Amino acid sequence: MKFLIKLIGVILPWPIKRRFLKQFFEFKLDPNAYIGFSWIYPDKLQMANGARIDHFNVAIHLDNITLLENARIGRNNWITGMSTKSEKHFTHQTDRIASLILGKESAITKNHHIDCTNLIKIGDFSIVGGYQSQFLTHSIDFINNRQHSNPIIIGNYCFVGTRSILIGGAVLPDYSILGANSLMNKSFDKPYFLYAGSPAIEVKSIPMDAKYFLRTKGFVN
């Protein structure tokens, strides 16, 4: 029965779907938010004015998804995790948050894999661009022989290039670019830099007046 209710929530036209999701799942959906034909069922969902989730996305086993004003998730993304309600894994991490937060005017484009076993936070005006990037917040702790997780943080006005891999503990600072096909496996702290490579390193500085960093709209023409 629960599966059938969720299926109905996918196929309904949006004006009816919005009311349905608010009533049956207590999702907080602004009247100007939108969800296409996608299977979006975290424990909690909050979408602000202009936030949008396009067709053919899957988002399951998360505590929370929050999209701030005009944040957008494109098509064909797989967003999953391990809810903190799980009694099998990560019980040693009492402060773990299995959530995805997209800042205002931010975007995840399409065909990406987003593992939110721990928090993934993408700042304002930031874009996960291209295709087939992977955000992997959990892996095996070989010393203690158990699953372990760490958050991934993307700052404000950042760009993540196509087919990049970000590992738990990665931090891309504000006003930074991660080049295509990069592996980011640690925290960086210098803004206005291009980071690239496998593993990613500081490559070169970027002018503070670069127009990408001065946008007032998330979309780039």
Structural summary, described in words:
The protein has 221 residues and is mainly β. The chain has one domain (2-80, 95-214): UDP N-Acetylglucosamine Acyltransferase, domain 1 (3 Solenoid). Helix content is 10%, strand content 34%. The chain has 2 helices and 25 strands. The protein has helices at residues 2-11, 14-25; strands at 28-29, 34-35, 39-41, 44-47, 52-53, 58-60, 64-67, 72-73, 78-80, 99-102, 107-108, 113-115, 120-122, 127-128, 134-136, 138-141, 146-149, 152-154, 159-160, 165-167, 171-172, 176-178, 183-184, 193-197, 200-205. The strands form 4 sheets. The chain has a 9-stranded mixed beta sheet, with no helix packed on it. Strands 1-4-7-10-13-18-21 form a 7-stranded parallel beta sheet, covered by helices on one side. It has a 7-stranded parallel beta sheet with strand order 3-6-9-12-15-20-23. Strand 24 (193-197) and strand 25 (200-205) form a beta hairpin. The chain is globular. The N and C termini lie far apart (45 Å). The model has no long low-confidence stretch (mean pLDDT 96).
